[in-house]
């Protein structure tokens, strides 16, 4: 097989990154945008030892699950790489990810629920973080083409709240008006690197964060005055990121106008959110995810609860009024400040959040003799660490409720829990990210030993 070769392929599967999978002369070929059941003529783009990448030249037989996508760029950029598949098939795809990983790990007798659909399938994101770059001599916002830093200009981000798209475009136009340069990542020059916009569905407040190379620039006062006039915008923050790095946000925020936080709601509780703090991006699906987790936790008034990887305390504070106490752990200092302030804001006085790495704090608590009843964990994609798992089980919780955004690390961690007298019999996938291959899920582990 050679680069640029044209081949006919029968697509038999969908990879976990949503690429069509075919086999050709002993090689596995990943075909962008192709669906199982399709027959395509494809051009080989890259050849490795055992696999290759290809792109479709022509679809000879189309899958009945294919839907027409208004903008090809949504699929090309990875912004919405499942958008060409019917929604019910997307849900099936996500469930299958979990089923296949369990099978690979020889984990039997586990029921995998149907994926809980999201109430909104597009426009559901309450936050957008979009790169700003110069393309053909003009400042543009958009999304990077998959596996590259080539900006594809966009104004409709499809999965983002349309009100956020409106603000993104308005700010882009102002950056052009004041001739503020886009970031040039090759030479680490220019000014605006990213636009980060958050909108609270509950209050309508909109926070704009300009991620900039410098702390200040001459046009900032005039730009700020105009941004303040954009309908709905309640605060502007300059995030200072001087480094040559792929990390989006720098370490320092400067408040240009408005409140330093945005207020959102989950159920009856209010949450104040700082720019660096994590907040679930699918506002309508979040309470449904939490309810699924909390219902299965079967909490009692005497329970001591740990909320690990707590963000701004959304899970722990949602249960605090029904249990004895909540202790939370979170690594981002501002998020911990938000969590403790959010406890006060909601009249909760039995919840306390601590700054630090969960894999360091949990062993400390265990060695101090802490006993728990229920532990909620909601780690980032890399999952838990053996140190955390060891310490968590030492505190002897009846239940560990694992909210996961990566089924591969989930299954790895569940295997380790099984060696420590914890068992589980079902996993419930929840669609937090429609049109993308991301799989969220809830698993409840129960203690079997004494
Ligand atoms: C998927 S978010 C969940 C947040 C929260 N439970 C929620 O539902 O909004 C994961 C959180 O873990 C935090 N985090 C990442 N690594 C961590 C670590 N080693 N120890 C503690 N927290 C960590 C992140 O800052 C983020 O707030």
Automatic annotation (TrEMBL):
Q: Which Gene3D superfamilies match?
A: 2.40.50.1070, Nucleic acid-binding proteins, Vaccinia Virus protein VP39
Pfam families attached to this UniProt entry? TRAM (PF01938), tRNA_U5-meth_tr (PF05958)
Residues annotated as binding S-adenosyl-L-methionine? 280, 309, 330, 378
Question: Which molecular function terms from Gene Ontology are attached?
Answer: rRNA (uridine-C5-)-methyltransferase activity
Q: Which residues form the TRAM domain?
A: 1-58
Tree of life domain: Bacteria
**Any single biological process term in GO:** rRNA base methylation
Query: Which keywords annotate this record?
Result: Methyltransferase, S-adenosyl-L-methionine, Transferase
Keyword Protein biosynthesis annotated:
no
Residues of the active site are 405
The family classification in the record reads: Belongs to the class I-like SAM-binding methyltransferase superfamily. RNA M5U methyltransferase family.
**Protein name listed in UniProt:** RNA methyltransferase
